[in-house]
Design brief:
Number of helices: 7
CATH topology of the largest domain: Rossmann fold
Largest sheet: 7 strands, mixed
Shape: globular
CATH superfamily of the largest domain: Nucleotide-binding domain of ferredoxin-NADP reductase (FNR) module
Radius of gyration: 18 Å
Structural class: alpha/beta
Helix content: 10-25%
Strand order of the largest sheet: 10-9-8-7-11-12-15
CATH architecture of the largest domain: 3-Layer(aba) Sandwich
Order of helices and strands: EEHEEEHEEHEHEEHEHEEEHEE
Strand content: 35-45%
Number of domains: 3
Distance between the termini: 36 Å
Number of strands: 16
């Protein structure tokens, strides 16, 4: 079955932290097409909210035909989703976007997630067989960090210093003297901008998953674009569509 809007069922939902929720969705054959770094669009049951909410895929359970999303409630749409219970229907479109590339076993990789950019790094951590250091950045309250521990060495940074390194993810890298060949990251733009500069300084291959508000989610409306060095063949300007061409880009392709 191709990508299309379909009605699925909520398997379970739990609150992980203040305003952060984890939902498992029974998604059938959709899971066979899904990969780390992709996202789904989730539709509200309220007809006044026409546009779906794009949410990154956190985990994929192919044998069970289920997808997991971990999201923060930031408006009425996501607040509605947080109230869904087991067995409730949910309309989703996906999987959408281009995810992270495969990595050879002989590489050493930094997997870096910041804030709500942490959840999509979990499926990536599970799928990679190479050596990896997992660096997670929080404002204060931790979530998902213990789940990452099964897949690599985990390092934490918090803005207030309440856990791990005080500061940001790159402070944690420096504090622990970490080294790698490649970076894969997802998080807020200021964090990604700093990571891009760090990768350039250390001559590291780097892939960034960009966060942006989206409308259609399939590349038709040009609402979610990022500035690029090359001209996009679709729009004929120095922009790329994050939902369609991304959300994952090579760092040198985009201007942050």
């Amino acid at each position: 079955m191709g990508k299309g809007k379909r009605t699925c069922v909520v398997k379970s939902q739990e609150r992980l932290a203040e305003d952060v929720y984890s939902m498992w969705i029974q998604a059938g054959d959709m899971v066979q097409e899904a990969g780390p770094g992709q996202f789904i669009s989730v539709y509200s049951k309220d007809g006044s909210r026409l546009l779906p909410r794009p949410i990154s895929i956190c985990e994929i359970d192919r044998p069970a035909g289920a997808l997991r999303i971990v999201y923060r409630t930031v408006g009425e749409g996501t607040r509605e989703f947080s109230e869904y219970g087991q067995g409730e229907s949910v309309d989703i479109l996906g999987p959408l976007g281009n995810g992270f590339p495969e990595v050879s076993r002989n590489k050493e990789v930094f997997l870096i997630g910041g804030g709500i950019g942490i959840p999509p790094m979990l499926e990536l951590a599970k799928s990679l067989t190479c050596k990896k250091s997992i660096i997670l950045g929080y404002r204060d309250t931790l979530f998902l960090n213990q789940e990452f521990e099964a897949y690599g060495d985990v390092y934490v940074a918090t803005e207030d210093g309440s856990a791990g390194s005080r500061g940001n993810v790159l402070d944690a890298v420096r504090d622990h003297g970490l080294k790698a060949d490649m970076i894969m990251a997802c998080g807020p733009t200021p964090m990604l901008k700093a990571i891009k500069a760090y990768a350039e300084e250390h001559h590291m291959e780097c892939y960034l998953s960009l966060e942006e508000k989206m409308a259609c989610g399939v590349g038709a409306c040009l609402a979610c674009v990022c500035q690029t060095k090359e001209v996009d063949h679709h729009s004929n300007v120095h922009n790329r569509r994050i939902c369609k061409d991304g959300p994952v880009f090579r760092a040198e392709e985009v201007i942050l």
